[in-house]
Design goal:
It holds the Pfam family HGSNAT_cat. Residues 5-230 form the Heparan-alpha-glucosaminide N-acetyltransferase catalytic domain. This is Heparan-alpha-glucosaminide N-acetyltransferase catalytic domain-containing protein. By secondary structure, the protein is mostly helical. It contains 13 helices and two strands; from the N terminus they run H-H-H-H-H-H-H-H-H-H-H-E-E-H-H. It has helices spanning 7-24, 50-71, 76-99, 113-130, 133-153, 170-178, 198-217, 221-242, 255-278, 286-292, 295-311, 323-331, 338-362, and strands spanning 313-316, 319-322. The chain has a two-stranded antiparallel sheet. The two termini are 14 Å apart.
Length: 369
């Protein structure tokens, strides 16, 4: 990142991680408010925006970081090696998070959130370093249109005509050929971070790069906000139009989903920029800055702590229960409505994770994965 950090980007990243922790750690999965759940299949809830927002932010950071270093004359090969190392670290952390605590490597899930971030980051970096902006636009269009054509026209071997149903679509078939025994345990026949659906996810990141180029290529607030606003509205309506025949779907990361979510990311970042960097209303933003400056670390810790809370057993009314259930029962259940109690359980996890995040922020520790 440049010496003068863009506050809006840190806050937008922090809000995204804040939301990710909130939706991943309810007190009870049986009692969750609808906006805090993913769409069952087709469609898009606020929760479905979170992961694409993070990949979009990765793209913005690519432009801010690599663009500045290229202008200083840093060799592309050096930047590529650094990017490869970072991608491997992300993938490694993702596999480690999946493996904890049993380390059942024979059935280890290979895809995952951090793994997709690592792959998308590296591929996007390679394209950014060696392709022109026009080539990036052209390749993004090819990826989105090609993915749509493949998913809606190519027959699925052993299944029949092309379809977009769970477990029987082309992306699921590809996962079954390559990742058998190493997919999401809740499905075992497809993975929401599978191989084929990672291709359109690259475009989500590249749209973030385009957002970053508007930031670095324009010095005035008005120009940045105008272009971000136009891009955001155009992408949202473009995604909605495409969804009429290629539905919004996070699990498949459909092309319409790419456009729609990137449009909201443009508008979300623009709103943060206007509030923070233009109007100077910054007092409310500190908790999100604290989360955003060590976003990957906080996300990794959230996964580890959630697993530990499920493994640690304590006595509760004569029964051995998990620490998570104990805290939920002792603090929230019984006196709050079920969904409110579940939401408070998620907020408790956010407070717990804020402690190490605050410690790192206070000592200016930024763990660069």
């Amino acid at each position: 990142m440049p010496k003068q950090r863009i506050l809006a980007l840190d806050v937008f990243r922090g809000i995204t991680i804040f939301a990710m922790i909130l939706v991943n750690n309810p007190g009870s999965w049986s009692h969750v408010y609808a906006p805090l759940l993913h769409a069952k299949w087709h469609g898009c809830t606020p929760t479905d925006l979170i992961f694409p927002f993070f990949l979009f932010i990765v793209g913005v950071a690519i432009e801010l970081s690599l663009g500045g270093q290229l202008k200083k004359g840093t060799p592309k090969g050096f930047l590529l090696r650094k990017s490869l190392i970072r991608a491997l670290k992300l993938i490694g952390l993702g596999l480690l998070l999946t493996a904890i605590p049993y380390f059942d490597l024979a059935h280890l899930r290979f895809p995952g959130v951090l793994q997709r971030i690592g792959l998308v980051y590296f591929i996007s970096t390679v394209m950014y370093l060696y392709w022109s902006p026009k080539a990036l636009v052209f390749s993004s269009g090819i990826l989105l249109i090609g993915y749509w054509l493949c998913m809606t026209f190519i027959p699925v071997p052993g299944i029949g005509p092309a379809n977009l149903e769970p477990g029987t679509n082309l992306a699921a078939w590809i996962d079954q050929q390559v990742l058998t025994g190493h997919m999401w345990s809740q499905t075992k026949t497809w993975d929401p971070e599978g191989l084929f659906s990672t291709l359109p996810a690259i475009v989500t990141c590249l749209l973030g790069v385009a957002c970053g180029k508007i930031l670095t290529g324009n010095s005035s607030h008005k120009a940045r906000l105008t272009k971000w606003g136009i891009a955001g509205v155009t992408l949202v309506f473009g995604g909605l139009a495409w969804s009429l025949f290629f539905p919004l779907n996070k699990a498949l990361w459909t092309s319409s989903f790419v456009l729609y979510t990137a449009g909201w990311a443009f508008l979300g970042l623009a709103a943060c920029y206007w509030i923070l960097d233009v109007k100077g209303w910054k007092k409310w933003s500190l908790p999100f800055v604290i989360y955003g400056m060590n976003a990957i670390t906080v996300f990794f810790l959230s996964g580890v702590i959630a697993k530990l809370f499920g493994l640690i057993k304590v006595n509760w009314e004569g029964t051995r229960v998990s620490l998570k259930l104990f805290l939920q029962e002792a603090l929230f259940n019984g006196w709050l409505a079920p969904k409110d109690a579940s939401l408070c359980g998620a907020i408790l996890m956010m407070i717990i994770l804020f402690i190490p995040a605050y410690f790192m922020w206070k000592r200016n520790i930024i763990i660069k994965v």
